[in-house]
Amino acid sequence: MALTRNFKETVVQRVQGDVAFAHALLDEAATLFLNGEPETARLILRDLVNATMGFEQLATLTAKPSKSLHRMLSPTGNPSMDNLAAIFRAIQDRMQVNFEARAVEV
Fold it and tell me: Domain ranges in the chain?
């Protein structure tokens, strides 16, 4: 039988060792939200939080309980726009990145 690695551990190691990958995950989460795929976006954000700061630090930065944040970023979570903005802001600050929105002509 082949040896396999835990997916979550692989993502954590990749995010911690590859800044471009971490930035791409954050970009993908934002893009998914904007394109109407919030379920997948929440899962990517959850993996990114686990890999960068953890939910306890996110709770401190957002002034929201850790358990509530876990629920918000679960597959069935339903964060308000204010909570979602606070989560994105905390991750942006932690990763020291800024978003830039541009309209794309179709």
Answer: 9-95
0.85 surpassed by pTM: no
For the record, the structure tokens of 16 come out as 């911690």
**Burial classification of residue 18, based on how many CB atoms lie within 10 Å of its CB (0-12 exposed, 13-18 middle, 19 or more buried):** exposed
b/e burial code for range 50-77 (CB count within 10 A of at least 16 → b):
bbbbebeebbebbebeeeebeebbeeeb
What is the pLDDT at residue 5? 67
Helix segments in 1-106, DSSP class H: 7-17, 19-34, 38-52, 54-62, 66-72, 81-95
Query: Which residues have C-beta within 8 Å of that of residue 41, sequence separation ≥ 6?
Result: 28, 29, 30, 32, 33
Residue 16 sits at φ, ψ, to 5 deg, of -70, -25
Tens-place pLDDT, residues 29-64: 999 998 999 999 999 999 999 999 999 999 999 999
CA–CA distance, 58 with 52 (Å, rounded to integer): 10
**Residue 80 corresponds to which tokens in the numbers above?**
């308000």
